[in-house]
Amino acid sequence: MTLDIDFDSASLDLSSSRIEGARVLLRGHDNHYPGKWKWVHFRLRGCRGREVSFELPDSFEPGSDHLERHRMVYSYDGHTWAFFPHNRRQPARGIYEFTLGAPFDRDEVFVAYGIPYPASRVDRMVESMASSPFVQPTRSADESFVLGMTPGGSDAFGRRVPPLPLYGLQIGEGGPDARRIVLMSGVHPNETPASHMMEGMMAFLIDPDHPDAQFVRSHAEVLIYPMVNPEGRFAGYNRGTREYPERDANRFWHPDLYGDFLEVRTIAESLKQDLDGPPDYFIDLHSWTDTGRHFGILSREDGFHLDPFWQAFRRIEPRVNEEPSNWLNWSTETFAFKILGARFAMTFETMFVPNMNIDGFHELGRNLGRALAAGLSARA
Questions:
Q1: How far is 129 from 103, CA to CA, in rounded Å?
Q2: Which of 102, 236, 345, 373 would be 212's cystine partner, CB 3.0–4.6 Å?
Q3: Hey, which bits of 153-290 come out as E strands?
Q4: At how many degrees (to 10) do helices 119-129 and 192-205 cross?
């Protein structure tokens, strides 16, 4: 059997990983937290008819206890994913072990920490939405919805990362009386459930028949930036970009800080051009490693937890919780509130929930869209 990471969003320290019989001893790679791991995604070849056990050290960030209920995923084609049925942390041995409990029935299998969302999937999503009469480029984007291209280069594994597009899409009629909504995801590369949630929300917003989608389109201008950090996603990083893998890409959202942080600067400056006033809603989608309830990070001091949109979302999705925002870091949320003057700003964190598949995250995105309709209606 052999291990391979020569594909979009793969991540594994191959030099420190090895195969001993039917045991695959893995080592994750994280530039932001050296010696720890948070995202792994690899391909195992030559495994047909073999019952394989996988091991990772429990040096997991943000803590090995977050692996207690986690379940890894696998796929034979890189598109349809299933959860490993047997996952166990063994603190005494300092490892996290997982297995199918049966022989693989294909020659190669993809394995990942969570359901991946490769950078190339954004290209396909944008291409599929381009034919919708409800979608157009943002003011700063070209006719292909491109705000700019990343530079490309080599990643920490020595792989070539091609230049990748940064997209800006607008949904809705706009106009002087329209509300302004900003939706964003993909700042942190390993937070793939957020991207699946974004995909579900975008599909909902262009639904020609759903009355809530129709209401949002007729009352709002929705600006969408679906993948802020495509090179980091392609390279399989945790929190940084390909150029700055050791930095947290969600701590530099201020004109005095983003400097040559190309992805951050491009999206931030595009937002200033694309908006003709403060956004009424700014929502940045992220993901968290725990397996509890999805939650929104929002300012209670500013009354955001009482907003009709947020109240509607919690009624539709009772599994959603909330955490207070403190405005301490220059995240996208802080940038929206303090620089753009957003009337409501939130970071929303989806969980890597065991057995929650792509359809589940799509549903979460659709329900966020329905809640936006309720919030707009209450403000009308």
A1: 40
A2: 373
A3: 153-154, 160-161, 165-167, 169-171, 179-185, 220-225, 281-288
A4: 0
SS3 content of the chain, % helix, strand, coil (to 5): 30, 25, 45
Class of 2-112 in CATH: mainly beta
Structure tokens at 330: 């220059």
Domain ranges of the chain: 2-112, 119-379
What is the separation, in whole angstroms, between the first and last Cα of the chain? 61
Dihedral (CA of 312, 315, 317, 320) sign = positive
Structure confidence by residue, pLDDT tens digits, 193-224? 999 999 999 999 999 999 999 999 999 999 99
Sign of the dihedral through C-alpha 236, 240, 246, 250 = negative
Question: Cis bond leading into 230, ω under 30°?
Answer: no
Distance of CA 346 to the CA centre of its chain: 15
Phi and psi angles of residue 180, each rounded to the nearest 5 degrees, phi first: -110, 125
Q: Give the tens place of pLDDT for each residue, 101-143.
A: 999 999 999 999 999 999 999 999 999 999 999 999 999 999 9
Amino acid at 63: G
Q: Per CATH, which fold does 119-379 belong to?
A: Aminopeptidase (3.40.630)
- Give the pTM: 0.97
CA distance 353 to 326: 26
Could you tell me if 236 and 11 are in contact, meaning their C-beta atoms sit under 8 angstroms apart? yes
pLDDT over 80 (residue 175): no
Structure tokens at 188: 């942190």
Residues in Cβ contact with 348 at an 8 Å cutoff, skipping those fewer than 6 apart: 194, 283, 284, 285, 286, 294, 295, 296, 297, 368
Instruction: With beta carbons less than 8 A apart as the criterion, state whether 39 and 111 touch.
Output: no
